[in-house]
Write a structure and sequence with these properties.
This protein is of the alpha/beta class. It has helices at residues 45-54, 82-104, 137-141, 192-195, 217-226, 257-269, 296-318, 426-431, 464-482, 496-505, 548-551; strands spanning 20-27, 33-39, 57-63, 68-73, 160-165, 185-186, 242-247, 274-277, 322-326, 339-343, 354-357, 372-378, 397-400, 420-424, 446-449, 456-461, 484-485, 492-493.
Length: 561
């Protein structure tokens, strides 16, 4: 059963001015340590650089704009004092209070008018759906169909969507028409300790090109956003926008802090309009400032993850990037977390994690960063997916993510048709045994389409990882509709606040279920979830289920079945 558990967003880590405010380290194979160092707020880069050198560190990569550096050293550096730890804890408390206050403030329900959607519209020829459209209940749910949003607007290549993930298969027939090879970057390197020997990769190298995905997760996400409407396979929510690969995830599904910061700052510097973040920053699912169950070094590391990620999110948003993230697959009320048994998950996922008692001061990044739109997942019946995280503090909108256990007691229960179908790299499918030597799928969770030339493959997955790109696709349509010319980078640009307002305003209000708390009939009590709030906003669906047709001005409700 292809239950996408690891990748679900929170899925699938007194000094003088200029000194490092916090540092986290990972030991290399030779004993050399690699640190991510966060500079004190307002510190001049030269002062910070000098302090790192005095402490025995060597800067190998630096983000001066956000005050973060990657540093190598032969011995431990940057040990924080008790004063540092207290200050960092206070900073986190203030940041949490600010996030809570922002969540409580009602957002505007109406955005300013924009230009008519393009390229569709009255008088244009009818849109022909792609061959596998009948299998895409998710697109029908949000009105991304030939007689819905596609007939009004499909987006534009002037809109650039960054996929921060495991990569994108740029050669996939449904991806290639919208893939921006020039802007795409691979921002990480395969790690043999978790990804396997480099020689086992298809290219025999740990240095993958920027048009490769050796996991499949990123390609699935990218296809949900913008698979081309080209007479083959599936179509995405916004089938006319550009896809930019910002690979920050390992083949094994880990997302480490340095590459994530690289991806976010790159997005801000290169005119990316929206980014999809279907992951959490390893190795901590929940980052706690001062959990007594964690060592001082582990506390420092978690504080650093929060501070550095927030700086990068702020940097990207200030430059016009709308940031959207998956809520996570832990069926947890993110406003009331009580335990974490999956952290730290690196360097050894089999021995490192331990059970920790946690509370709401602990946050999952980037989902709980200020300025990030959090997306919960729903199944084909419209119910909150059994695995989806939720909560009134974190849920902004909901979107189709799939639910293998939906429609209990019917023939549809447990079938791939309950999940999300999107592009699958053929090389990964063959390596996984999902495609045989004749090119035939070996599982019902993989579909082949050869109707438009070379055969292409598609995979059924579920997770909040699959929900987030539906919201990203709608956001991309909003940018295309409301954006203005970007003289610095070309393309268009829309204020992220405006994009968020329109995304929420046009979402379909969805009330809490009549049975509340909601109990899943085939699952233990730990999955039973209380839904707080009313029709216009609640902890299951946020402001509602995203609606592509409404976002581009196509009226008319669509059924959730």
């Amino acid at each position: 059963m292809h239950e996408d558990a690891r990748h679900g967003g929170a899925r699938r880590r007194p000094r003088r001015a200029g000194g490092p405010a916090a540092a986290s380290a990972a030991a290399g194979q030779t004993g050399q340590r690699t640190y991510v160092v966060v500079y004190e707020a307002g510190a001049a880069p030269a002062e910070a650089q000098a302090a790192i050198e005095r402490a025995g560190g060597r800067i190998v990569r630096e983000h001066t704009a956000i005050g973060v550096a990657t540093v190598e050293a032969d011995a431990p550096i940057g040990k924080a004092t008790a004063r540092d730890r207290r200050k960092a804890a206070r900073d986190l408390e203030r940041a949490q209070a600010a996030r809570d206050a922002a969540r409580r403030r009602p957002g505007p329900r109406h955005g300013p008018p924009g230009r008519p959607g393009r390229p569709g519209g009255p008088g244009r020829p009818p849109v022909t759906p792609d061959p596998l459209a009948a299998l895409q209940w998710d697109m029908a749910m949000i009105g991304a169909t030939a007689d819905g949003a596609y007939a009004v607007a499909q987006g534009s290549h002037d809109v650039r969507v960054g996929i921060i993930d495991t990569g994108i298969d740029g050669a996939h027939p449904d991806i290639a028409p919208n893939f921006d090879a020039g802007l795409s970057r691979n921002l990480t390197v395969d790690d043999p300790t978790v990804d396997g020997p480099c020689e086992s990769d298809p290219d025999g190298s740990c240095e993958d090109p920027a048009d490769v995905d050796e996991d499949g997760h990123g390609t699935h996400v990218a296809g949900t956003v913008a698979a081309a409407l080209n007479g083959q396979g599936t179509a995405g929510v916004a089938p006319g926008v550009s896809l930019v690969n910002l690979r920050a995830g390992q083949d094994s599904g880990y997302f480490f802090l340095g590459p994530v910061l690289d991806a976010l700052t790159y997005a801000g510097d290169h005119g990316i309009d929206v980014v999809n973040m279907s992951f959490y920053v390893d190795p901590w699912l929940f980052n706690c400032a001062a959990n007594p169950a964690d060592s001082p070094a582990e506390q420092r590391e978690q504080r650093l993850v929060v501070a550095a990620t927030q700086r990068a999110i702020d940097y990207a948003r200030e430059r016009g990037v709308t940031t959207i993230a998956a809520e996570g697959n832990g069926h947890t009320d993110l406003g009331r977390p009580t335990f974490d048994d999956s952290s730290p998950d690196y360097p050894d996922v089999d021995t490192s994690p331990r059970e920790r008692t946690i509370d709401n001061s602990c946050v999952s990044m980037p989902t709980e960063a200020d300025g990030v739109i959090g997306v919960t997942a729903v199944g084909p019946s419209g119910r909150k997916a059994f695995y989806s995280d939720y909560g009134v503090e974190q849920a902004d909108v909901a979107a189709p993510g799939g639910d293998l256990r939906d429609f209990p007691g019917t023939d549809r229960y447990g079938t791939p048709g309950n999940l999300i179908l999107a592009p699958y790299p053929e090389s990964v499918g063959r390596a996984n045994g999902d495609i045989d030597e004749r090119g035939e799928p070996t599982t019902d969770f993989v579909v082949r389409d050869c109707s438009a030339g070379p055969c292409a493959y598609y995979q059924y997955l579920q997770g909040t990882s699959m929900a987030a790109p539906h919201a990203v696709g709608v956001a991309a349509l909003i940018v295309a509709r409301h954006g203005r010319h970007d003289p610095q980078h070309g393309g268009v640009r829309a204020d992220p606040d405006l994009v968020e307002q329109v995304l929420k305003r046009t979402a379909t209000d969805t009330p809490c279920p009549a049975q509340n708390p909601f109990a899943y009939p085939d699952l233990p009590d730990e999955y039973t979830a209380p839904c707080e709030g009313g029709r216009s906003f609640n902890g299951f669906f946020g402001e509602g289920i995203v609606d592509a047709a409404a976002a581009v001005g196509r009226p008319g409700p669509r059924p959730h079945r």
